[in-house]
Amino acid sequence: MIKIEKISKSFGGIQAVNECSFEVAKGSITGLIGPNGAGKSTLFGIVAGFIKPDSGRILLDGDNVAGISPHRLFRRGLVRTFQTPHEFSSMTVRENLMLVPGSQSGESLVHSWFRWGKVKQEERELIDKVDEVLAFLNLDHVATQKAGNVSGGQKKLLELGRTMMTDAKVVLLDEPGAGVNRTLLATLAEAIERLHRERGYTFCLIEHDMDLIARLCDPVVVMANGSVIAEGDFKSVRSNRQVIDAYLGGEAA
Q1: What is the mean pLDDT of residues 164-184?
Q2: DSSP string over 198-244
Q3: 3-state helix, strand, coil in the chain (%, to 5)
Q4: Nearest to 165, CA basis, from 77, 246, 91, 230
């Protein structure tokens, strides 16, 4: 579904990503791991359209989308979440979800005046979808709370809920487990598994929690110094000598 071919990017003469290549197959949960400074988040920013690569291609369903803006990729079904949630803190959890879908008839003044029946129908369908997402993610009990007041783990679930409000084909998850307590982390992992199993979502996720990677991901891609150094199932990459050396040379094995 996504094929990354020899993507490179440098900043001020420092090579952040160096001819990085791997594939995220349709229907997979692909893990992207590596020590800090490996280039993982930069690569995510490139794939999601926030950073323009110096060279290389990103094929989405066979089309080269390298350098295409995030909103155009969004319309094509490629959605990214962030390590630090980007909620509208003064709005409720429910309102945050209702903001996501675009191209609503109610956004047009003409439709609001002359096609109010269609506008009302879309509003009812939107409310039903929001209720479904809230129940799916066990967020219905905080639906009326300000998004800025819920816990860090609930904000991560809200980020995942935003992807459910779109027609997402591929979801890039940037450290979904960061700062999440173990109880909510289990809820988050279960939600990802259900979206994958029941709704056919394709995921690629950056994560430092190896228990979460082991539970969710196959294959696992390992980056170090801006390049892919290993790829395979979790057991094989964990025992790869080059991977062990990269982590020992970074922060921890």
Answers
A1: 90
A2: HH--EEEEE-S-HHHHHHH-BSEEEEETTEEEEEE-HHHHHT-HHHH
A3: 45, 25, 35
A4: 77
Q: How far apart are CA 221 and CA 217, in angstroms?
A: 10
| 152 C-beta neighbours (distance < 10 Å), count | 14
Residue 102 has pLDDT above 80, yes or no: no
Domains in the chain with CATH codes: 2-90+162-250 (3.40.50.300)
pLDDT score, position 38: 95
CA 165 to chain centre: 13
Q: Are 8 and 15 in contact (CB under 8 A)?
A: yes
Say which residues have a Cβ less than 8 Å from residue 124's Cβ, sequence separation at least 6: none
Q: CB–CB of 152/179 below 8 Å? A: yes
